[in-house]
Design brief:
Elements: E1 3-9, E2 13-20, E3 25-32, H1 35-47, E4 58-60, H2 66-71, E5 78-80, H3 83-90, H4 101-115, H5 127-160, H6 162-168, H7 178-186, H8 190-194, H9 198-207, H10 214-225, H11 234-269, H12 275-279, H13 286-296, H14 306-313, E6 318-322, E7 325-329, H15 336-352, H16 354-365, H17 370-391, H18 397-400, H19 404-407
Parallel strand pairs: 1-4, 4-5
Antiparallel strand pairs: 1-2, 2-3, 6-7
Helix pairs in contact: 5-6, 5-11, 5-13, 6-10, 7-9, 7-11, 9-10, 11-13, 13-15, 14-17, 15-16, 15-17, 16-17
């Protein structure tokens, strides 16, 4: 007898439902969100025929967490059903719009019973690839958080401290530089900055890790801080200085977290068997390559062909046709992390690969906007990456960009 399982998960408990191939409810149970509850779930699956050779497929509305980790032991297929899709399936069983946790578990089980072929199970990535995904996504989040804090600091400085903007925004990394953060923490107001002496500035630069040109940089900063700028009232300026100190403290912690996570990503990524192939592609460094690997995984059966990977990344166009109307445009449903890394990859490849640069310029001459040309280049390079990973080959510039007629194919 074929059995299907659906789980409606929550924070403290989970509802489980099992049905057979005819839709008959075989069992339902509410389990706790702890080790005892997970053991109860596995025992319940075993009672209804779950074996290592023929595991019972499970549908759930999330792809992460301890419950999913417990379910993914062995070769059990776990299907992460989109909550919006599950809501649409719920309407098939009744028009009253009633909703309950046990009912949702039953709906999820019936999704597998009727349409399991239309849904994709979680990829069978290795533990190493999943660990890289955790670190790469955390590092990317830390970078985004750092940039948000930099934007907040910049916005605050514009209101009362324009000298700091003139002093650091023209430098690489701007306000995220260790020198900028150290000086702003030592002098959070224009009044305190104007009183800084050359020895104090030199000491601050050394604390930030600067080793060359300290005297010249200290002299430049003193001139900037003592120039004539508009000022807020003293009390308001002091209050904003306290706010700046708090933001700089958060920014320091964010910068440290991003750097430490970057080191962890590099250590894990370089040990992966796919790292050498990914790093052979122009424009892909360790951090960007780790982000790409984190999103595509190392399950070679996950995508049937390169088109599936391109659609998942959002680089392939999508066609919407109805009657005489036909529109070819970009995809809105995609892996947002992968497409973000992909655009950085395509942009970096323009300088690292003559073929990629020529491809991009031909697309621009063909009439594409910058984003369209970049997406077209990314679409082609993702196809090349899929081929190289499947065949275990390194990127070859001479074979990657050979046909100009292919470059002029119409794509969004």
């Amino acid at each position: 007898m074929t059995v299907f399982c659906g789980i409606d998960w929550a924070e403290n408990h989970h509802d489980v439902a099992m049905v057979d191939e005819a839709g008959q409810l075989l069992a339902k149970r509410r389990i706790s969100d702890d080790a005892a509850g997970y053991r109860l779930l596995l025992d319940l699956l075993a009672e209804h025929g779950d074996t290592p050779e023929q595991p019972i497929p499970v549908a759930i509305e999330t792809s992460r967490g301890l419950l999913v980790a417990a379910l993914r032991t062995g070769k059990r297929p776990v299907f992460a059903i989109n909550p919006l899709a599950a809501a649409r399936y719920r309407d098939r069983h009744g028009v009253s719009r009633k909703k309950s946790d046990p009912g949702d578990a039953l709906v999820l089980a019936n999704i597998l019973r009727t349409d399991m072929h239309a849904h994709r199970p979680l990829p069978a990535d290795t533990d190493q690839a999943r660990a890289i995904a955790v670190l790469a996504r955390a590092q990317q989040d830390a970078v985004w958080n750092r940039q948000q804090l930099v934007n907040q600091v910049r916005s605050l400085l514009r209101e009362y401290y324009p000298a700091a903007l003139d002093a650091f925004l023209g430098k690489q990394f701007g306000l995220a530089r260790a020198e900028a953060r150290t000086v702003l923490a030592a002098a959070p107001t224009p009044a305190s900055a104007a009183q800084l002496s050359l020895p104090q500035l030199r000491a601050a630069l050394r604390r930030a890790g600067r080793q060359r040109g300290i005297d010249a940089e200290a002299e430049r900063l003193r001139q900037v801080f003592r120039a004539d700028y508009a000022r807020q009232p003293s009390a308001v300026e002091d209050a904003m200085g306290h706010q700046l100190v708090a933001l700089v403290g958060q920014l320091n912690a964010s910068c440290v977290a991003a750097d430490e996570l970057a080191e962890a990503v590099e250590a894990q990524f370089r040990q992966h068997p796919d790292a050498e192939i990914i790093l052979s592609f122009p424009g892909l460094g360790v951090q960007l390559g780790a982000r790409v690997l984190a999103e595509i995984g190392d399950d070679r059966t996950r995508f049937a062909d390169a088109r599936g990977l391109k659609a998942y990344a959002g680089s392939a166009p999508v066609t919407r046709a109805s009657g005489k109307k036909r529109h070819v445009g970009r995809r809105f449903i995609k892996n947002n992390r992968l497409i973000t890394a992909g655009f950085l990859w395509a942009f970096s490849a323009l300088r690292a690969s003559p073929g990629a640069d020529a491809h991009y310029r031909r697309r621009r001459e063909h009439g594409d906007w910058h984003a369209q040309a970049q997406r077209h280049l990314l679409n082609r390079m993702i196809g090349q990456l899929h081929h190289c990973l499947q065949t275990r080959q390194l990127f070859d510039e001479d074979h990657a960009f050979t046909s100009s007629s292919t470059d002029l194919a119409v794509a969004a």
